[in-house]
Amino acid sequence: MKLNVSEALSHPGQEFPFSGTQAIAEQEIGGDLVRLEDAAVEGSFLSDEDGNISVRGTVRTTAHARCAKCLEPAQAEVRNEFDETFIRAGDPEDPEIFAYEGHEVDLDRLVMSYAVMALPIRFLCREDCPGLQYRDPDVAPAEPGIQYPFAGLRQLLENNEEV
Ligand SMILES: [Zn+2]
User: Fold this and answer.
1) HSE on the CB side for 9, CA within 13 Å?
2) Which helix (H) or strand (E) holds 113?
3) Short-list 91, 123, 105, CA closest to 41
4) What's the maximum distance between 2 C-alpha atoms anywhere in the chain?
5) Which pLDDT belongs to residue 163?
6) What residues contact 132, with CB distance under 8 A and at least 6 apart?
7) Residue 43 and residue 49: Cα distance in Å, rounded?
8) From ligand 1's centre to the CA of 49, what distance in Å?
9) What is the 3-state secondary structure (H, E, C) of 78-107?
10) Ligand 1: distance of its center to the CA of 66 in Å?
11) Domain chopping of the chain, boundaries
């Protein structure tokens, strides 16, 4: 998501509202994949006398991952507020700052960072999820990639019965 800051540069100190959506790449967190829906971003920006652009606003999205207890799909609402300054002609390689050149401020890294920062430490399908220990292994879905502690054992037993 990009902001055209031409107007702000010619009117330092004047605030310009903006809103939009931005796609956020799937994140791997603690070995688990977290998928994020397109983020809704809104806020305002203004330029100082030196052409540095302050951007503040809100990122909102929904994140999807597996429940930490039962491994079923779980989701979490993600919301975070940001207030950052993009340094005009700053070093784009410097991870400590946000930088921009010309008349466009690219919000991709900012939106992604603030969305990821606000992710829950672990996802739960519901507050009181009892976890795997109460699951009946007979009803465990045979989805590839999802680990059930007894699935391998059951497979072994079934294979042996066929011999
Ligand atoms: Zn659960």
Assistant:
1) 15
2) helix 108-117
3) 105
4) 81
5) 47
6) 69, 70, 71, 148, 149
7) 21
8) 52
9) EEEEEEEEEEECCCCCCCCCEEEECCEEEC
10) 8
11) 2-130, 131-163
**Residues 6 or more apart whose Cβ sits within 8 Å of residue 100:** 5, 53, 86, 87, 88, 90, 106
Residues in the chain: 163
Contact 38, 61 (CB under 8 A): yes
pLDDT score of 45: 98
List, for residues 3-43, the tens digit of each pLDDT value.
Answer: 999 999 999 999 999 999 999 999 988 788 999 999 999 99
Q: What is the pTM of this model?
A: 0.76
Q: Which residue has the tokens 């066929």?
A: 162
Distance 32 CA to ligand 1 centre (A): 15
- Cα-to-centroid distance, 139 and ligand 1 (Å): 15
Q: What are the pLDDT digits (tens) for 76-100?
A: 999 999 999 999 988 888 888 999 9
Residues less than 5 Å from ion ligand 1, measured at CB:
67, 69-70, 125, 129
Q: Is the pLDDT of residue 160 over 70?
A: no
9 exposure class (CB count in 10 Å sphere: 0-12, 13-18, 19+) = middle
Instruction: Give the pLDDT confidence of 120-155 residue by residue, as tens digits.
Output: 988 999 989 988 764 555 555 555 555 555 555 555
